Each structure stands twice: as structure tokens, then as C-alpha cells.
Amino acid sequence: MVCFFARDGDQLVARELAISHWSADQLSGPGVCGVLARRLETHCPDGFVPARLTVDLFSPVSNVPLEVDSEIVRRGRRIAVADASIAQGGKTRVRATAVFLATGTEPPGRVWSPTPDLPMPPPGCVSPNGAPPLFKSGDRDWSGDFTVNQNADRKISWHAMPALVEDEPLTPFQHAAMVGDTTNHICHWGSEGAGYINADMTLTLARLPTGFELGLRADNIIAADGISIGTATLYDRAGQLGTCVVSTLSNARRQIDYSRFRVSERAG
């Protein structure tokens, strides 16, 4: 079974998909965000949905068996909050907060909203079997070829993530969290590769995704003095469902040249 992690008792052991391209001794952001979301969603009350997930990625997570700790911060009638963290070597490596909101009826009246341009490849182009995502650069066609997409054009990606943990179905919240971390890749993959590493990821959701496909469209990049903020829209075949924001640091000395990647490799 293609997956990011296997279970070993109460611990999770990384498979190849969970290994970072920055270092074989570290775990990738999508995998880390996924396991934090997996733990946090156990605290989502009935009738609530996860509306925000913020992950602080202030230390690399080592490629060793890991456990996730969590606690409920608040459980109110309409708002619930939970925290989660991963500790290794006696130190917290990453932490996350999830905000869960109670669903309800829409208020009366109309408000302004943009008409989104959300390109989608034809159905059946991706499947949750570990294959890499598709990319669309500028007005080019969708392609899984990294070399073709290494340019300075606006990028959109289309994903169908495999299971996060072996023998567990991937939940919509886990899927959104994993794809959300790839915002750094979509926003900061340029003509010479990817030279920023994200220090956090914030995912906001008005609803959970439906189906097994998710799109991520780069919306804005604001950079100065080695710090860059990237924002993107998350959507599925039913339309937009949330936003993703990453704060990133220049990592030019270890820039990833994606033009050297094989088509079969996954970005993350």
C-alpha cells in the first residue's frame, strides 16, 4: 500500500513519500502537517468543522519513529480549539493549533465575492496511488514534467494524495493539510528551482474538500530581504474551499533544482 507512514505500536514510521527533499534525515512538510491534522481532528466535536489549522515548523522533524501529543484548549458551544505537537530529543520540533467552528445557516443578504478562475485537468488524470501531482505554469497545459514547469510563471498544482497512514483512509482534513503545505512549492518554485523553506503553514477552510482531488493556485508572493510570504487558493471540483499562507526563509545555499527530478517523483 502506498502511504506516507506505517504504524509501529503507538508510533509512526516514515515511508519514502514522507522523506524531505531537503535532507534524507528529515521529514517533509506535507507528511508532518498531515499527522498533526490527523491527531487534531480527533478533537473536532460533532456538528463542527475544522476552519483553521496553523502549523509552526520551527525545527526539522527527524526521520525517526514519532508520536504526536495533543490537548483541548477550549470546547465551547460554537468554537473549539486544540493544540498538537511533535517532540524529539526532549525538545518540541513542531506545533499546531486547530480551530473548529459549529456549522449553521447562512445570514440573509448578499456580499461581494470574486468570480474565481480555477483551472482543472480532465477527470481521471490523477489517482491516489503515490503518483506526483500535475502542474500548470502560466497558460501551458497540465503536466507532471518538472523540467517543463521550472519557470517564472504563475503555478497551479493538482493533487490526489495517497494514504497518510497505512491501512487508514485519508480524511478530507488530512488531505487539505498535506496539500496546504505545498503552498511553498507552488508560490516559490521559480526559474532556478525552489530557494525558500517555509517556517509555518496556515490553512483556512470554509468547508471540507469533497472527492479525492485538490487544486492549489498561487495567488500572491511578497518578498524582501530573504523573507517571502506566499498565499494560495485551495479548491476541488466543486469550487474553492479555503486559503493557504506560508511564511518562508531564503534557503539559497540548498536550493532544489526540480529540473533534475524524474517525472515519477513527488514534490514536497
Written description of the protein model:
It comes from Nocardia aurea. Residues 153-244 form the Acyl-CoA thioesterase-like C-terminal domain. The chain has 268 residues and is mostly beta strands. It has one domain: Acyl-CoA thioesterase, double hotdog domain (Porin, Beta Barrel). It contains four helices and 16 strands.
Keywords summarizing the entry:
268 residues, mainly beta, Porin, eleven-stranded antiparallel sheet, 16 strands, ACOT8-like_C, Acyl-CoA_hotdog
Give the topology:
Blueprint: E1 3-8, E2 11-14, H1 29-40, E3 48-56, E4 69-75, E5 79-88, E6 91-102, E7 134-137, H2 146-149, E8 155-159, E9 163-165, H3 172-181, H4 183-188, E10 189-190, E11 193-194, E12 196-198, E13 200-205, E14 214-224, E15 227-236, E16 239-250
Parallel strand pairs: 1-9
Antiparallel strand pairs: 1-2, 3-6, 3-13, 4-5, 5-6, 7-8, 8-14, 10-11, 12-16, 13-16, 14-15, 15-16
Could you say how many structural domains there are in total? 1
Distance between the termini: 20 Å
CATH architectural name: Beta Barrel
What is the structural class?
mainly beta
Helix-strand pattern: EEHEEEEEHEEHHEEEEEEE
Radius of gyration from CA coordinates: 18 Å
Biggest sheet architecture: 11 strands, antiparallel
Molecular shape:
globular
Low-confidence parts = none
Task: Report the top-level CATH class.
Answer: Mainly Beta
Mean pLDDT: 94
Bin the helical content: 10-25%
DSSP helical segment count: 4
Strand % is 35-45%
CATH topology: Porin
